[in-house]
Structure formats: structure tokens, C-alpha cells
Amino acid sequence: MTISIAHLGPPGTYAEQAAVFYINWLAKKTGIEAILCPYPSIAQSLQAVAFGHTQLAVVPVENSIEGSVTMTMDTLWQLDRLQIQLALVMPIVHALISCATSLDSIKTVYSHPQALAQCQGWLQEFLPSVQVIPSNSTTEALQRLEQDLTTAAIASSRAAQLYKLPILASSINDYPENCTRFWVVSQPKIEAVDDISSASASHTSLAFSVPANVPGALLKPLEVFAQLGINLSRIESRPTKRSLGEYLFFIDVESNATSAEMQSALAKLNKYIEVLKIFGSYNVLPINAFGNEVKS
Amino acid sequence: MTISIAHLGPPGTYAEQAAVFYINWLAKKTGIEAILCPYPSIAQSLQAVAFGHTQLAVVPVENSIEGSVTMTMDTLWQLDRLQIQLALVMPIVHALISCATSLDSIKTVYSHPQALAQCQGWLQEFLPSVQVIPSNSTTEALQRLEQDLTTAAIASSRAAQLYKLPILASSINDYPENCTRFWVVSQPKIEAVDDISSASASHTSLAFSVPANVPGALLKPLEVFAQLGINLSRIESRPTKRSLGEYLFFIDVESNATSAEMQSALAKLNKYIEVLKIFGSYNVLPINAFGNEVKS
């Protein structure tokens, strides 16, 4: 059996690196082989799973410096039928990749807006007068570096190896503790994967809208979790896209959706919310920068 | 007296349009004249005020479709000394600007990532195979359109007029109810502006960190507001940038910071939070797409 995994491409992105880890982990656990399918955007990676073109997708959810990847959350809410199988937390170490011989000759730096934002202090200090140009992924601009020696790109050192390009500066992110959480998502029933993922899952992700913006509209749902001793590890608001000031709330809780306290919480929650979507229960695996599992 | 206003440039951005409205409004109220100072990023617009290069900045805070402008929030928290004077809510109507004679000849579309995201449905329907390239503002790519007839940019129709460029398609945003909230910010004391802005201000914005991620850590501060009948119009979490899973919370409340209930809330809040920053009290002005005040 071979399954396919969608991710943001071209090859060499951090999403691909997380997907490669997952492939190795899955092979070790189940013997299942998997192939990678790069897509031009995160939304298209998720749509690939929803429409059955691939079995899984690995998508970034949140970075410790730049925060939520809103495209992932909005697309999950819209598609309405994807389940999270596993979370991977991976350190992000950016490199400046260029065929230039020194920093002085660089005039333009390309990268994904998240990567540019994560290196803005370094860029201001070492390349204060370059033009910074956002691209659709960290690897999209790599192909043009060989033709233009005044350009550079910010991507992983793994991407530099993959494209056989020189690294001009390593570890250029402003905060050393830079890491990104990825989700492995599938359609609701993928048996082989479900078996290994849902057993003893530690986290559950869900999202809901509240009926009106009155004092305490968000408070009531939060009280439900607090009163049952369920810790929220994250809360994020997103616009409903209907009108300014109307929000959906995305919540990660440290509990399995099938546990007694979560069943109780979900039953009580219904009184205070409008629409509830549960994106599944899953475990969180910390992995290191080389794509190996970190044993705690 | 002439004051200067920083905004995201080049000229023709939505931030400039909001700033132009503010200039007219200010002139009518106080007789003060103002000049516009375009900056290449939102962060630099805010730094211009913090370091005294301009007296004011007009920056986007939140869009009804794409949500928070995280750059604005993160920079406000970091700079630590800016005050919000006024909020402006402006409808956003995007146009496809190009020197091409028809949609068929367009191969590349440039715009700010927020504008691209707000038109993704339209692009998928009418230009499914074009390359979409993010730029630093909606107007940055306008200059190249005349040289390359296969390119287009998404910006306001006002920008098309300003650069004397043809509009190929109007109102291309996916949701008609697309609007952005801008903040006019200054250093804490700008007397002429303070006088007109803080009187009877209806909203207050603040941000805080909580001491630990235990069940209910966010609940306690929210309960303070709810118990005093203060409505939260917005809550947004941002990473502390220290480690994944640690957040700051940005909150807008419908109350003046000098009111009795807010004074009481702020006193009680101190028990539950780590660091509190108050970004000021201000009024919210809805303006129409032509930059005129909407009378309610």
C-alpha cells in the first residue's frame, strides 16, 4: 500500500521536511509507504485531500514567532471534512542562500512572508538597503539565484543542499527558539493511519462561532472548559467573513475528544455556541531540525 | 501648523486613502494641515512615529475577511509608546488593473498578500492559470504594468486613477462586505490631536500577557470585563515569541479607559496578568469608499 501526501512546494519547503519525517515515522510504525505531492499553496494542499487527490496533507498551523497560519485555519473551516491525525513541532532554522560572493553584492532577497518576518531584524542589521520581495514559498525563488548573482533567498539549509546552492549566512532567524507546528490531516476515515493516530491522543482541536457579540459571549464556552479542568493550549479568533467584528474561535485543548470530561464539555458547549466543528484528536510529536523524533 | 502622517506606500494604497480622509477630517475639525509620508512597510510607518520622524501614522489593523494585520499588533507591542487617536473603518473594493486588452492575455497578477487572499475566489474563477505574486503593498507593482502587457495588479480604483492605468475588472473581492479598520496612532502626547480625539472616546485597546498556561489563565481577565458589563469587541492572541504555546492577548473593549467601570476593571486585571499595555481610548469613524464620513 502506498499513500500520497500533499504539501506546499516546490520541494525543499519546511512543510516538505515535516512530511518527509512523517513518511519515515509512518513506514517504521506501519510499513506503509508514502509519496510526496507538492502543491503551489497551502489551500491547494488541503483541497487535494478533501477532493480525494491525495490521502494526506502536511500543513503549517502556527509558528512561535509569527503566529497562526490563517490560510490553514480558514481552509479547514471551509472544507468542513478534514481530520487532524498528528501534530509535528519542528525547529525552523533559516539560511541566506545566494550565489553572490559576499553580502555587499546582494540587492534583492526573496522568501515566503513568514520567513521574511522571522528574519526582519537580521535583514535590517546586515542587509539594510536590499529590496525584500515576498514569494509563495521559501523555495519558489531558488531557481532564479544562479542566473542573478545580486539575489538571495531565505530557506532551510536542506533546501540549499537539494538545489545545490551555496549558503551565505546560517541561522539568520531573529529568535533562536523559532519553531513551527504542522498538522497531518486526512479525510475522516483513513483506517491504516487512524489506528496509530487516535489511540491515546492527547490534544483536540475545534472551532465554533458564537451567536452574538454580547459581554461574555466567548466567556461562557471558556468557562465550560475551565470548570472541567481542561487546559486550553491555544485560542485564536478568525473573522466569520460576514462582517467586521464577527468571529470564529479556534481552540486547542489538552484532552481527547472521547474522554469523559471532553464529552461533558462538548455537551455543555452546545448551549452557548452557534456552529461547532471538531477537527479531531491527535498526539503531538516534537522533532529536531534533522527530522528525527525528540524523545522526552 | 503642519503635521506629517506616515503610511504604507507607494502612494495609492488603502492606508493612504484612509490617511487622506483623516487629513480632511482633521482640517475641518481643527484647521491643522497635514502632509503624507509613504513608508515601505507598516512597521516602518509605526517606527517613524515612535522615533519622531512623523507626528502620526495611519496603519491597517484588521480586515473583515483576512483578519488581523499581525505586523501592526506586534510592532505596537514592541514599540511600547504609541497611542491610538482614532479608528477608521473603510470599505475595500478591489479592481484588477492592467494594460492588457483582455483577461486572456494576463499571465501574472501582483498584489499585497491580503488583497490576493481577498480575491482568491475571483482569481480561481476568471484567471485560474495565472501566476500570483505577492508584493509589499497593493501599489508596489503598478509601475511595471505599462512595460509588460501580460501583467496585472490588484489595487483600488483610486490607485488606477492616480497612476493613469486602465481597470480591466471592478469589484473583484470575493465578499462584497469587505472592509478594513485602520488606526491613527501618535506618540502619547500630541496636544492638538489629543483634544479632539480622547473626548468621549468609545473604545479602548489593550494587550497583556498571562503568567502561566493553566486552565483558566485567560478566563480570569475575561471574567473581570464580563462582570463589569464591559463588552469585548475583539480578542486576538499573538505569540510572545519566547516559545510555542505562550501568548499575548490583544483586546478591544467598548468603554473609555477613564470610565469608572474601566478603572475598576484595570485595577482587578492586575491580579491575573503579567504585563499590561494600554494603547489608548478612541472613537470609531465609519467612512465610505469615497473617503467620506458615514453619518449613522
TrEMBL record, chains A, B:
SUPFAM superfamilies: ACT-like (SSF55021), Periplasmic binding protein-like II (SSF53850). One of its GO terms (molecular function) is prephenate dehydratase activity. GO terms for biological process: L-phenylalanine biosynthetic process. Residues 4-187 form the Prephenate dehydratase domain. It catalyses: prephenate + H(+) = 3-phenylpyruvate + CO2 + H2O. The record marks T180 as: Essential for prephenate dehydratase activity. Pathway: Amino-acid biosynthesis; L-phenylalanine biosynthesis; phenylpyruvate from prephenate: step 1/1. One of its GO terms (cellular component) is cytoplasm. It is an enzyme of class 4 (lyase). Pfam families: ACT (PF01842), PDT (PF00800). Keywords: Amino-acid biosynthesis, Aromatic amino acid biosynthesis, Lyase, Phenylalanine biosynthesis. Residues 206-283 form the ACT domain. InterPro entries: ACT-like_dom_sf (IPR045865), ACT_dom (IPR002912), Chor_mutase/pphenate_deHydtase (IPR008242), Preph_deHydtase (IPR001086), Preph_deHydtase_CS (IPR018528). Its EC number is 4.2.1.51. NCBIfam families: PRK11898.1 (NF008865). This is Prephenate dehydratase. It comes from Nostoc minutum NIES-26. The lineage of its organism: Bacteria, Bacillati, Cyanobacteriota, Cyanophyceae, Nostocales.
